[in-house]
Design goal:
The chain has 261 residues and is α/β, with parallel strands linked by helices. The chain folds into two domains: 86 residues, 2-Layer Sandwich (Nucleotidyltransferase, domain 5), CATH 3.30.420; 141 residues, Nucleotidyltransferase, domain 5 (2-Layer Sandwich), CATH 3.30.420.40. Helix content is 40%, strand content 23%. The strands form two sheets. A five-stranded mixed sheet has the order 3-2-1-4-5, with helices on both faces. It has a five-stranded mixed sheet with strand order 8-7-6-9-10, sandwiched between helices. Helix 2 links the parallel strand 4 and strand 5. Helix 1 packs across helix 2 and helix 3 packs across helix 7. The radius of gyration is 19 Å and the shape is globular. The model has no long low-confidence stretch (mean pLDDT 92).
Length: 261
């Protein structure tokens, strides 16, 4: 089994692969203050609940956008799972050109998504990942990563309204169906949801014009399904894109290691 871990700003997602099949997916909060022991014990408990035999794990790959936790996570894997994990960054994608000013600055999750999507679709595409931030990433028809855009995530915008506007209540993130709000919570949901639909479609259209190609538009992340039915530009939803990319990159790097021996 290969264990893959997507460490985001808000949540950390673990996935287990047997071959190319995802056999489990687990989600936990990202605790920036957690020690390596806390990470290790939490991962062990989650795996035990899934009845995963830890000795069956023969490889681990992870992507992190929280640099201060990378040492704790790596140490947890070594101490509690007996494995040195592959920390995925721009150097782990030898067969994908990264055509940006500074490849090292691109979030690992964005590169992992691009890698997975290219291997699945083999065509020009724009990837929209709904996380703490909403990211837009462009892949050319030759499989090169071209860059993209970053916007605040919808939940982040909702929290900002709640904390900065004294009379506005916190609301759940959902589709209000109609744009004209008949009460304050409805009006907030409308502004958030339909505002983000406009952001998605407007930015995707501009990115397509700039790259000069007809693109597939692939959504991933926790809110992908919510927006897919309302957006006019999203064509596909891939909920496990990041986990799949981590598996592919791990296997590619193992192959590189074997051929270099």
């Amino acid at each position: 089994m290969i264990l893959v871990v997507d460490m985001g700003n808000t949540h950390t997602v673990l996935g287990g692969y047997e071959g190319d099949s995802l056999v489990f997916e687990l989600r936990m909060a990202t605790n920036r203050k957690a020690t390596s022991d806390e990470w290790g014990l939490t991962v062990l408990q989650l795996l035990e609940r899934q009845k995963v035999d830890v000795s069956s794990i023969h490889g681990i790959a992870y992507a992190s956008v929280v640099p201060q936790l990378e040492w704790a996570m790596q140490n947890a894997f070594e101490r509690y799972l007996g494995q040195k994990a592959l920390c995925v960054d721009h150097t782990c994608l030898p067969d994908m050109s990264i055509n940006v000013d500074s490849p090292a600055e691109v979030g690992a999750d964005r590169l992992v998504n691009a890698y997975a999507a290219w291997h699945r679709y083999q065509t020009a595409m724009i990837l929209v990942d709904f996380g703490t931030a909403t990211t837009f990433d462009v892949v050319s028809s030759e499989g090169a990563y071209l860059g993209g855009a970053i916007a605040p995530g919808m939940e982040l915008a909702s929290d900002a309204l709640f904390f900065k506007a004294a009379k506005l209540p916190r609301v759940d993130v959902s589709n209000p169906k109609t744009a004209i709000g008949k009460n304050t919570p409805h009006a907030i949901r409308s502004g958030l949801f339909w505002g983000y639909v406009g952001l998605i479609d407007g930015l995707v259209t501009r990115l397509q014009e700039e790259c000069g190609e007809t693109t597939k538009v692939v959504a991933t992340g926790g809110l992908a399904k919510l927006f897919a039915g309302a957006s006019e530009t999203l064509t596909d939803v891939e909920p496990h894109l990041t986990l799949e990319g981590l598996r592919l990159i791990y296997e590619k790097n193992q192959e590189r290691r074997r051929t270099s021996l």
